[in-house]
Amino acid sequence: MRFFKVRRDQVVLVALIFLSIAILTLHTREEKSGILHRVQNFSRELTHPLESAITRIATPFLHGWEYVVNIGRLQRDNQELRKELAQAKEKLVKLRVADEENKQLRKLLGLKEELPYETLTARVIGRIFSGGQAVIMIDKGVSHGVSEGMPVLIKEGLIGQVVYPSSNVSLVQLIIDPKSGVGVQILRTGESGVLQGQINGELEIQLISKEADVKKGDVVITSGLGGIYPKGIYVGEVSEVIKQSSGLFKKIKVKSKINFLRVELVLVITNPPKTEKFPFEGE
Questions:
Q1: Of the candidates 135, 126, 173, which has an alpha carbon nearest to the alpha carbon of residue 151?
Q2: What is the value of pTM for the model shown?
Q3: Which among 58, 202, 203, 244 would be 20 to 30 A from 43, CA to CA?
């Protein structure tokens, strides 16, 4: 019985194959208006609405599945992009810092050639602007030839003086420090006074006579008095002249070209000439 069943299945399969070949041959040779083409078109019209409905139902699920599949990849891509952006920003900041330092270094090199003194280039490694102090720390000290009282400057003007040198670093008191005092003069007229820093970071010349000829815009330089700074170093310009109703002296405000918060490189004058002390200073 099993043999006859297998034979029957084989006969049916062969018959179906021949029937399919015959239908395909007739369909190929038949005109488009033939019965096979009409049956095909009819079947297509019957199944088309069902196919459209299935497509409409399945499409949102397919899109949702694609979103679920891709969300992990999108998150990884987003993380990579954020990382690359952070790295690009870091590189940009480093390039800007390097560019700014190169500009300052070129200015210092030009200043070294102009000055008649021996100088040492130093980098600012710390700042203190609090508690009534205005001090910076530089990366040069006694082992580099730095000593107390050496003037410090940049191309834009006077910075201050070394007040505490250690072996490899030094503290520099800025001219805007309230405890600082710099002998200065008005370049145009030669009127002399003492420049002092203010608690708000401004600069003010004291001890200039009320009758002295001082105008806004006058250039202020070091006078060579006070025993620290050589004569002729640029300090700034007069920004305001205030005539006081009482007293013997004018109140003269000075504007420096230096942004003391952004100075990165400085020059230390290592062989400053001896200068006279202020007339009111003792031996």
A1: 173
A2: 0.65
A3: 58
Across 4-18, 100-114, 186-200, least confident range: 4-18
CA 32/CA 36 separation, integer angstroms: 8
For residue 132 the two structure tokens come to 């009534």
The one-character DSSP state at 174 is E
Q: Could you tell me which residues are beta bridge partners of residue 214?
A: none
Could you give the angle at which helices 35-114 and 2-29 cross, rounded to 10 degrees? 80
Tokens of 275: 């200068």
* pLDDT, tens only, 115-146: 889 999 999 999 999 888 999 999 999 999 99
Contact 171, 148 (CB under 8 A): no
Answer whether 241's CB lies under 8 Å from 141's CB.
no
128 in Cβ contact with 260 (< 8 Å): no
The percent of residues above 70 in pLDDT, for the chain, comes to 69
> Tens digits of per-residue pLDDT, 245-255?
777 888 899 99
In this structure, what token pair is assigned to residue 3?
């043999």
Q: Kindly state the DSSP code that residue 142 receives in the 8-state scheme.
A: G
Beta strands in the chain (DSSP E): 119-128, 135-138, 151-154, 157-165, 170-174, 181-186, 192-197, 203-206, 219-222, 234-242, 251-255, 265-269
